[in-house]
């Protein structure tokens, strides 16, 4: 049986692993791991196996390893990772397409029941319909101000009920009701917070941009430059065609005026 590693040995091993990954991979997804279980994390690792590696750890250890690697290599771009290591986060090192990896990670969300004291990540609405509960449960719904009626010997919810709002703490009554109705309102998985790509850091929303989106944004930028250049009469490549056309129109207008004046003289 191998001797158990000391804390110092574990730190050295972790430093070596993270520094090796930083050396090997130029793309990193910083992910939030709140409410993600070990089995779920293992499934994510299996799903990403091939071109990606998931690394978890304490923020202090990750920051320490990043600083060590930046000092060793002289590449201070790695230090851009440090402000991102806040909260319960992990790192996904990848050589694959960032958008595809992000989408693969999103596949591993699992449903979860509400728990007392948990801050709701989304609004929870109980739909109308038959609950399957017997009439003795009516008083329970009344406590939560949920309108019901008895239909064929069971309790039926009449209208949709906004039970919990996003950002609110879940109470014991709400948990009990959702459990009775068999509703698992929340889903949890790794959530991409930031993207690191060879020294650059950007929001994961950028990964959703298509070529059409980029072309549209570029065209809008060119249009703004053109409008500004024409307004202040400052020549730019974008405004040049419009300036030539406008100049041609002015020359043509002057020529017509001179022609008309000459005809009147004769």
UniProtKB/TrEMBL annotation:
- Keywords of the record: Ribonucleoprotein, Ribosomal protein
Signal peptide residues are none
| Gene Ontology terms for molecular function | large ribosomal subunit rRNA binding; structural constituent of ribosome
The processes (GO biological process) annotated in the record are: cytoplasmic translation; ribosomal large subunit assembly
Biological role stated in the UniProt entry: Ribosomal protein P0 is the functional equivalent of E.coli protein L10.
PANTHER family cross-referenced by the UniProt entry: 60S ACIDIC RIBOSOMAL PROTEIN P0, LARGE RIBOSOMAL SUBUNIT PROTEIN UL10
- Describe the subunit structure: P0 forms a pentameric complex by interaction with dimers of P1 and P2.
Give the protein name, as stated in the record.
Large ribosomal subunit protein uL10-like insertion domain-containing protein
| Species name | Sphenostylis stenocarpa
